[in-house]
Amino acid sequence: MVVVVSACRGRFSVVRRCLDEQTGASVAAKFVSRSLQSLDAVMAEVNMLRNLRHAALIQPKSLYETDAAYVIVMPL
Q1: What is the pTM of this model?
Q2: CB 15 within 8 A of CB 7
């Protein structure tokens, strides 16, 4: 995944517009700081988004883990 531009910053995370290297598609990647949020909290958010159905909500595509952050990838 290649970061294209930072979009929004929150208390625990930053959302960046990225390019998926495998498909070439633009995606939104939410980088959640590992020092501020636990994996359980991030998984709860992902599971909640996967279970809710609403036009204004984006379904998470995948979840990655780096040394500094958990990365939730969502389509644009």
Answers
A1: 0.86
A2: yes
pLDDT per residue as tens, the chain (76 positions): 677 788 789 999 999 999 988 888 999 999 999 999 999 999 999 999 999 999 888 899 999 999 999 999 999 8
**Which domains does the chain possess?**
2-75 (3.30.200.20)
| Structural contact between residues 63 and 46, judged by C-beta atoms closer than 8 angstroms | yes
Cα(21)–Cα(33) distance, integer angstroms: 23
Q: Per the structure block, which two tokens stand in for 75?
A: 């389509």
Is the torsion defined by CA of 61, 65, 68, 70 positive or negative? positive
Residue 61: CB atoms within 10 A of its CB come to 14
Q: Count CB neighbours of 45 within 10 A.
A: 18
> Which residue, chain included where needed, has tokens 């070439």?
24
